Amino acid sequence: MKFLCVLCVLCGSSFFAAGLEREAFTITKYDLEVRLDPDQQRLGARGKVTLRNDSSQPQKIATLQISSSLNWRSIQVDGKPVPYVSQPYTSDIDHTGALSEAIITLPAEIKPKDSVELEIGYEGVIPLDTTRLTRVGVPPDIARHSSWDQIHPSFTAVRGAGYVAFYPITTESADFSEGNSLFEVVDRWKAREAASEFKLVLTLQDSSSRRTPTLLCGADAGGSSVGAGADAGKERRLQVECSWNPLATVTPAFAMAEYVDESKGPLKLFSLPGHEAGAAAYSNALDPATKFVTGWFGPPSAPIVIADFADPNSAPFESGTLLIASMAAQDSKLAGINLVHELVHSTLPSSRPWVYEGLAHFAEAIYREQQGGRQAALDFLGLHRSAFLDSEKEVSATLQKGVGEKGAAQRNMGQPLATTFDETYYRSKAAYVWWMLRDMVGDDALKQAIRQYRAADDNNKDSKYVEHLIEAAAKRDLDWFFDDWVYQDRGLPDLRVQSVHPWKTEKDVQFITVTLENLGIAGAEVPFTIMFEGGEITKRMEVRARSTATTRVELGGVPKKIVINDGSVPESDLTNNVFMIPPP
Ligand SMILES: [Zn+2]
Fold it and tell me: How many Å lie between the centroid of ligand 1 and the Cα of residue 346?
């Protein structure tokens, strides 16, 4: 029997695999009801999904994929069951390393751009599963700290696509061991789903005698999404609703535990017993963080949710205005920074990832600056640099060979910030870009531009909306900067001193003429410091791509050394940034 089933699956896949376009359909709308049964680690879901044909061909076959620990129960169109074949599909997009794929024969062909609504039902278990990590050699003890998703009676936390397909997705297979394949598939999925509508109603209904837990998912800008329902006799029922419209960069997720509710103002704070000091760090950091965010970005408008982990070693997870992070340790600095990040999300909704996440990470850096000075902030920002440095060096090198941006794009290299769904770009590179903009235009102009930002106006009608806001506030042309850093990926600048000429006036005043050269294809305004006998002076100069720029600086003594770039401009090569000036 087992042998027969294996045969069915093999025949099934080879029969269908030939013409299967797994990414032909985009799921534009989710309306799901998910029932949780933690004692059994079970989940049962029913609801509707709307599929739009985004391919150029009419489609009669659709595929829907859920985690391999879940099983399809029913798929209907217009109230009538439609034929489908269910098969396992190997993919590292799910923590189990595989998906349960339904290959559905639709009642009629769906033309390009047309949609079809499917009523679906599926159920199964979501236990802890580290397969996709352990099979590429990650030790199980380490794997469980990052692959922590599970439904469990004592602590439940589950993240969506990219971690656990607890709702249907439509993707090509992703492979952890093949370079960036997994991230490419996940980024492509997120980009396709960014404009989709997602509504999730979570219900817990059981007859457990334990304390009533708190059930939570992220919140959209509209309202709260935390449920702590009452015991109704022996049966308890808990329900929360989460909706995201549009989904943007959010990965739908939920958590459930016997949390202590320490919510205050816009902060919904849920800690676990024994973590009182860690939770207090958040409560205490709320006022200064709110004051800082309000001063820079405006008053927070939507609640933020911060929830604790049972395992203190679990890697934190952030999505939209939900942060799950361990409160086992009392870390006031980290609590402040985490709060600033989430409060910026609350203040500034945007469906542009580089604006939404980039500004939140930039805010962390300026908060750090407020507490520890510019160098502390640059060190903090420096932690982001390694995330994109290697891939950007590659882009720089390829562009230098003269293949052009199209050539680089064809080689699948680099990502324009304006459109990317790659986290390393929209978080780490974007944080630097906002920091450089702030250095260029100053706090007041940038604050003014940010406060005028409206997500609804940041649409394709004016693709240079953000640039225009900042230009108007700063009264400065920034088109070259946005072109090199936001609209295109031109790699990183590479700055060096090309030549210096120290000289003295007739009245014995010391001057130096400095020429800086940018060997890269992205321009930058860079700070440089001249050390001279008895002091130093820092100036800034705009050096466009593959160009030089010259300036004259008055000094208090004989110049000795020039250091370009204090770390605020990401560069492909930092080994040529110190220039020793020969003695006169
Ligand atoms: Zn964020």
Answer: 10
Report the separation in Å between the CA atom of 538 and the middle of ligand 1, taken as the mean of its atom positions. 33
CA of 105 to the centre of ligand 1 (A): 39
Positive or negative, the Cα torsion across 239, 240, 245, 251? Answer: negative
* CA gap 542, 95 in Å, rounded: 47
Cα–Cα distance for residue pair 168/165, rounded to 1 Å = 6
The count of C-alpha atoms lying within 13 angstroms of the C-alpha of 535, restricted to the half-sphere facing its C-beta, is 7
Cα of 464 from ligand 1 centre, angstroms: 23
291-300 pLDDT, tens per residue?
Answer: 999 999 999 9
Q: How many residues does the chain have?
A: 584
∠ CA 533-536-537, rounded to 5°: 135
C-alpha 319 to ligand 1 mean position (Å): 6
Query: What does the pLDDT look like over 433-471, one tens digit per residue?
Result: 999 999 999 999 999 999 999 998 987 778 899 999 999
Distance 317 CA to ligand 1 centre (A): 9
What is the pTM for the complete model shown?
Answer: 0.91
Alpha carbons 276 and 267: distance in angstroms, whole number: 16
Distance between Cα 508 and ligand 1 center (Å): 55
Cβ(518)–Cβ(544) under 8 Å? yes
The alpha carbon of 78 and the centre of ligand 1 are apart by a number of angstroms equal to 39
What pLDDT shows up at residue 224? 39
**CA–CA separation, 210 vs 258, rounded Å?**
9
The tens digit of pLDDT for each residue in 387-436 reads 888 888 888 888 878 756 666 555 556 789 999 999 999 999 999 999 99
What spacing in Å lies between the alpha carbon of 494 and ligand 1's midpoint? 30
